[in-house]
């Protein structure tokens, strides 16, 4: 691969992908590791007539281990924030909006939604730390919640229903839980590391498309800072001629969720923030996809330069991108 370290790509994939055989083992052992779940299984089994109990244990385990407790709290927080955002869509013209920088806006809904999320998370886990888009860092802990209360604020302010709440939990540097919630469509994307990714109650898988020429690729335009604009436009020009199409809806969190759901075959963007992509990246890898920086490494949460896709399209995307990378975009 021209200009790309195969070793880096392999390391990035091993670090973040869903390990299918290990997933099954973990899921089957959750009940034994969690006394509350084990007690729930015994309670349910005792309510089943003795003659009907054979073979029910595994089925019950699947029912009671559907969602990790920390993921459950994150979902609760995302839905609360999503309800606030959805109600505000009827009074957008009345909202107070502040311009942070060129084409980068924040509304009072962003702030209220963020505080709602933080309050919900800290009520359950008061010792956890917070990294949120609007309020920044709060506390110190091995557990760090990474929050974007409204990814796609510009879309929201224009009545374009392409925005989402994004919440991820990072434990000792590894993303372990993810929620992306789209209030307008009521689509809830969730993932727990090692247990797969879901859209509502449907298991997600990335696409099986093999050729870049047949692929639909998502992206995001530079909109506030333009230091990588020339390189980005060169990549865009190249991909326009080598794919089935490019799309730019305006929410990186949802773009990654759509990649996990098989709506896109791949996605790339530059200059993102960790709160834009932390949850979405876990969704992609738990759906069987690959995520890296634009050089095939694993610095994307730090640099904000990201490439994602199914295992066949991801390396092909990197090959097209490679000739256009500046030193900065290589993550060095």
Primary descriptors:
Fructose-1,6-Bisphosphatase, Chain A, domain 1, disordered N terminus, D-Maltodextrin-Binding Protein, domain 2, 15 strands, five-stranded mixed β-sheet, eight-stranded mixed β-sheet, alpha+beta, 332 residues, 2 domains
- What is the average per-residue confidence, as pLDDT, rounded to a whole number? 85
Cα separation of the termini:
19 Å
Q: What class do helices, strands and sheet pairing give?
A: alpha+beta
CATH topology description of the largest domain: Fructose-1,6-Bisphosphatase, Chain A, domain 1
Low-confidence stretches are 1-36, 60-65
- In CATH, what is the class of the largest domain? Alpha Beta
**Relevant CATH superfamily of the largest domain:** Fructose-1,6-Bisphosphatase, subunit A, domain 1
Shape from CA axes? globular
- What is the CATH architecture descriptor of the largest domain? 2-Layer Sandwich
Give the C-alpha Rg. Answer: 20 Å
Describe the protein in words.
The two termini are 19 Å apart. By secondary structure, the protein is α+β, with helices and mostly antiparallel strands. The strands form three sheets. It has an eight-stranded mixed beta sheet, sandwiched between helices. The chain has helices at 6-16, 20-33, 35-46, 56-64, 69-88, 108-124, 153-157, 229-240, 252-260, 274-286, 300-303, 313-321; strands at 97-101, 104-107, 129-132, 136-138, 143-151, 164-171, 174-182, 187-192, 197-199, 202-203, 216-219, 245-247, 266-269, 290-292, 306-309. Helix 2 crosses helix 3. The chain folds into two domains: 69-203, Fructose-1,6-Bisphosphatase, subunit A, domain 1 (Fructose-1,6-Bisphosphatase, Chain A, domain 1); 212-324, 3-Layer(aba) Sandwich (D-Maltodextrin-Binding Protein, domain 2), CATH 3.40.190.
């Amino acid at each position: 691969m021209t200009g790309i370290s195969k070793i880096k790509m392999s390391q990035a994939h091993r670090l973040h992908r869903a390990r299918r055989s290990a997933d099954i083992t973990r899921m089957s052992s959750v009940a034994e590791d969690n006394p509350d779940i084990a007690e729930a299984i015994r309670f349910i089994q005792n309510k089943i007539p003795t003659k009907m109990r054979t073979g029910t244990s595994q089925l019950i385990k699947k029912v009671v281990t559907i969602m990790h407790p920390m993921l459950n709290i994150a979902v609760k927080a995302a839905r609360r924030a999503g309800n606030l955002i959805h109600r505000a869509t009827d009074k957008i013209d009345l909202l107070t909006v502040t311009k942070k920088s060129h084409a980068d806006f924040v509304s009072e809904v962003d702030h209220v939604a963020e505080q709602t999320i933080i309050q919900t998370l800290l009520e359950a886990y008061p010792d956890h730390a917070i990294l949120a888009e609007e309020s920044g860092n709060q506390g110190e802990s091995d557990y760090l919640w990474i929050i974007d209360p409204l990814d796609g604020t510009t879309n929201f302010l224009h009545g374009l229903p392409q925005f989402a709440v994004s919440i991820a939990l990072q434990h000792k540097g590894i993303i372990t839980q993810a929620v992306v919630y789209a209030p307008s469509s009521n689509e809830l994307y969730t993932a727990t590391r090692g247990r797969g990714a879901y859209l509502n109650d449907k298991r997600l898988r990335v696409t099986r498309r093999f050729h870049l020429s047949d692929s639909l690729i998502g992206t995001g335009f530079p909109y506030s800072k333009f230091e990588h604009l020339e390189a980005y436009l060169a990549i865009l020009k190249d991909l326009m001629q080598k794919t089935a199409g490019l799309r730019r809806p305006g929410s990186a969190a949802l773009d990654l969720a759509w990649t996990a759901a098989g709506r896109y075959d791949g996605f790339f963007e530059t200059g993102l923030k960790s709160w834009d992509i932390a949850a979405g990246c876990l969704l992609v890898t738990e759906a069987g996809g690959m995520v890296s920086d634009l050089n095939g490494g694993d610095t994307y949460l730090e640099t904000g330069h990201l490439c994602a896709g199914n295992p066949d399209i991801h390396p092909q995307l990197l090959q097209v991108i490679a000739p256009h990378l500046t030193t900065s975009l290589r993550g060095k």
